[in-house]
TrEMBL record:
Family: Belongs to the short-chain dehydrogenases/reductases (SDR) family.
Alphabetized InterPro entries for the sequence: KR_dom, NAD(P)-bd_dom_sf, SDR_fam
Ketoreductase domain location: 6-190
UniProt-recorded name of the protein: 3-oxoacyl-ACP reductase FabG
Keywords: Oxidoreductase
Length: 245
């Protein structure tokens, strides 16, 4: 299998896109560590599913807004598996609303989780990440197209990942480490359920006229993580059903 012998860390692996990514990487052969915030039982369930695939798995509670917890998650994962090859910065927070109604706490929380945490994760992972490793950030189609009002904070946070991704690709390329950004469109998860109030509007903004499934994001992450993705770096890849088209 393509990821045999590799070790991955997926943030926010207890639900949604993160769970799909964790399971897909495990199916492809990787041992997988995941972080979660509040859903310990769901994280434990994902760990069991990974182990059932014959891989090693490890979960740790780590609030992405807590700098030390973020760093400890990286060192813990690397210690657990004795190596680290793939980092997927997936955990994210949404805060939609008119710009005038967003509080300072909203701004600080969303930037801490969506921007500062991937930055700190990467810093902590750097010396542990194997040459030829992978960093895959999860952005949003809202970074490419702010198609409806209310996305100022969320789009700001996700757009920041473009700069991080490109600059890191330049910094780590000599080690064969690739850094990429995947922009999901509307994906059916707890954060954005396909039967939610705004779902018809969001589906209508895609070219395909439907929500995506978490596994459709995981498939692209797996390609980037695998050997076939080795010449892709610094890229922003839309997996959004044509939301940004
Ligand atoms: P979910 O709400 O379904 O899952 C979020 C995951 O992130 C959970 O595992 C959750 O842990 C974890 N998480 C949330 N807050 C924190 C935190 N403070 N610290 C650590 N972990 C945290 O979200 P999605 O799967 O939909 O989203 C995953 C990523 O994809 C996010 O970055 C999101 O912005 C992005 N995205 C999603 C889209 C969508 O339509 N769904 C569209 C575009 C981008 P726990 O279970 O413990 O709460």
């Amino acid at each position: 299998m393509t990821l045999d012998g590799k070790a991955a860390l997926v943030t926010g692996g207890s639900r949604g896109i993160g769970t799909a990514v964790a399971l897909r990487l495990a199916q492809d052969g990787a041992d997988v560590a995941l972080t979660y915030h509040s859903q310990a039982e769901r994280a434990a369930d994902v760990v069991d599913q990974i182990k059932a695939l014959g891989r090693r798995a490890w979960a740790v509670q780590a609030d992405s807004a807590d700098a030390q917890a973020v760093r400890d998650a990286v060192t813990g994962a690397a210690a657990e598996f004795g190596r680290l090859d793939i980092l997927v910065n997936n955990a994210g927070a949404g805060a939609l609303g008119p710009v005038g109604e967003l509080s300072l706490e909203d701004v600080d929380r969303v930037l801490a989780i969506n921007v500062r945490a991937p930055f700190l994760m990467t810093q902590a992972a750097l010396e542990r990440l194997s040459d030829g490793g992978r960093i895959i950030n999860i952005g949003s189609c809202m970074a490419e197209r702010a198609a409806f009002p209310g996305g100022s904070l969320y789009a700001t946070s996700k757009t920041a990942l473009t700069g991080l991704t490109k600059a890191l690709a330049r910094e780590l390329g000599t080690r064969g480490i690739t850094v990429n950004l995947v922009h999901p469109g509307p994906i059916d998860t707890d954060m954005n359920p396909a039967d939610g109030e705004s779902a018809p509007m969001q589906s209508g903004l895609t070219a395909l006229g439907r929500y995506g499934q978490p596994s459709e994001i995981a498939a692209t992450v797996a390609h980037l993580a695998g050997d076939d993705g080795r010449y892709i770096t610094g890229a922003s890849i839309a997996v959004d059903g044509g939301f940004a088209a």
